[in-house]
């Protein structure tokens, strides 16, 4: 049986901060955590390359989106596409009522989100992201 060992640790978190998700996007490791920040880390050393504090008011989701972009969502009802090189938000989407977003996924030009149950209905929203009409949305209730 092989034994795994830690190859790097990171001291870039405050005490009592929990990592919700960490994943590789392009050539970097990206994480979201309980202090509502997004951190970009060097994969071999976990050295902090950059951070965005307050990426959401209650960050809940992180996934890769296109080359060197991260997709985040949160309880503030916003979906953001973030360029990991510049740390700038390049796209921001939301529904009119801004329900808390608990899940998000993307593939090619589609972004899908799942919102918190409200009035006995959950909401699934799918956005088509195209350069000519970014943010065209279809909403489904289930």
Notes on the structure:
- Helix content is 0%, strand content 51%.
- It has a 4-stranded antiparallel β-sheet with strand order 1-2-3-4, with no helix packed on it. The chain has a 4-stranded antiparallel β-sheet with strand order 5-6-7-8, with no helix packed on it. Strands 9-10-11-12 form a 4-stranded antiparallel β-sheet, with no helix packed on it.
- The termini are far apart.
- The model has no long low-confidence stretch (mean pLDDT 84).
Topology overview:
Elements: E1 19-25, E2 28-33, E3 38-41, E4 48-52, E5 59-64, E6 69-74, E7 78-83, E8 88-94, E9 101-107, E10 110-115, E11 123-128, E12 136-141
Antiparallel strand pairs: 1-2, 2-3, 3-4, 5-6, 6-7, 7-8, 9-10, 10-11, 11-12
Keywords:
single chain, globular, mainly beta, four-stranded antiparallel sheet, 12 strands, 142 residues
Number of strands: 12
Which regions are unreliable across 5 or more consecutive residues at pLDDT < 50?
none
Strand order in the largest sheet: 1-2-3-4
Structural class: mainly beta
In short:
With 142 residues, this protein is mainly beta. It has strands at residues 19-25, 28-33, 38-41, 48-52, 59-64, 69-74, 78-83, 88-94, 101-107, 110-115, 123-128, 136-141.
């Amino acid at each position: 049986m092989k034994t795994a060992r830690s190859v790097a640790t990171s001291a870039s978190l405050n005490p009592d901060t929990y990592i919700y998700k960490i994943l590789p996007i392009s050539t970097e490791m990206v994480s979201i955590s309980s202090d509502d920040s997004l951190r970009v880390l060097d994969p071999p050393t976990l050295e902090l390359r950059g951070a965005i504090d307050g990426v959401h008011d209650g960050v809940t989701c992180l996934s890769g989106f296109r080359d060197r972009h991260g997709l985040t969502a949160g309880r503030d009802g916003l979906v953001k596409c973030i360029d990991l090189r510049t740390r700038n938000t390049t796209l921001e989407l939301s529904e009119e009522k801004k329900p808390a977003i608990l899940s998000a996924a993307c593939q090619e030009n589609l972004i899908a989100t799942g919102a918190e149950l409200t009035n006995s209905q959950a909401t699934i929203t799918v956005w088509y992201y195209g350069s000519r009409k970014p943010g065209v949305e279809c909403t489904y209730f289930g």
